[in-house]
Amino acid sequence: MNLKGPVFRPFLFFGVLTIFVSSFIKCFMIEITDVSKSYKEGLTKRRVQALSGLSLHVESGEVFGFLGPNGAGKSTTIKILVNLVYPDQGNVSLFGQAPGGKDVQSRIGYLPENPYFYDYLSAEELLLFAGSACGMDRVSIKKRSKELFELVDLAASSRRPLRTYSKGMVQRAGLAAALVHDPDLVILDEPMSGLDPIGRKMVGDIILSLKKMGKTVFFSSHILTDIERFSDRIGILAKGELRLVGSLSELVTNGSSLEDLFLTKVVDVAEAQE
Questions:
Q1: What is the pTM for the complete model shown?
Q2: Dihedral, CA atoms, 100, 103, 108, 112, nearest 10 degrees?
Q3: Residue 220 and residue 235: Cα distance in Å, rounded?
Q4: Higher pLDDT among residues 33 and 7, named by residue
Q5: Tell me: the pLDDT tens digits for 22-38?
Q6: Secondary structure of the chain: what % helix, strand, coil (to 5)?
Q7: Which of 9, 33, 60, 237 sits at a 20 to 30 Å CA gap from 273?
Q8: 104 to each of 26, 87, 97, how far by Cα in Å?
Q9: Which fold has domain 27-107+185-274?
Q10: Are strands 233-238 and 241-247 parallel, antiparallel or unpaired?
């Protein structure tokens, strides 16, 4: 059969064209488009707007710092990303797919702001549960757990019940659980919360090591120094609105600081809503 004959030439042309165009279409690890979310609050069921028309993207291998004051909508955004909350409007995709799919969920590691686990479990049992939920076998989980407990400094206490842990130790156990299946995308909601300076440095070093491994990290924080140290790009959220997004080198210019930029954007929103 002559695949170069006149009958097949149009098919060959469109096949080559499709490959050519696809090479220029970038599939973001995270893509959020015009997302809004509101909640009913209190006995009066008054609507509170948590997010308003949020749009941003995160590229593969990038560390994205999501910065904002308390109540800005950071946790709501993250809950939408991991499919715990549904937006009122807009679209969200991870790896070019809807966030609720099994294939997508198996490629995500998630640490909530205040992790709560069954406190009668040990850290070893927690990681066994987390790894099994992601389809890992017991041998692989045991090997990976040993590496992670060394990494988060819980090797000596991994068999103790979680109820005997401090808040910082629970945070580190949660981080190990989020990483047990070696995810491509790691989503961390205030990962430094409750940690002492040594614990904060440890988590920061883990974020940097994930970046070196080519992983994508999306983390929220209201601590400016953490954002400055780890992020390739940042987004500033205030009152549910994305006020600014870009790299630090693009955003912080002319001798200004991230603190100046952050305060300006947050104050601008507060004044506009008065």
A1: 0.85
A2: 30
A3: 9
A4: 33
A5: 344 456 899 999 999 99
A6: 40, 25, 35
A7: 33
A8: 18, 18, 7
A9: Rossmann fold (3.40.50)
A10: antiparallel
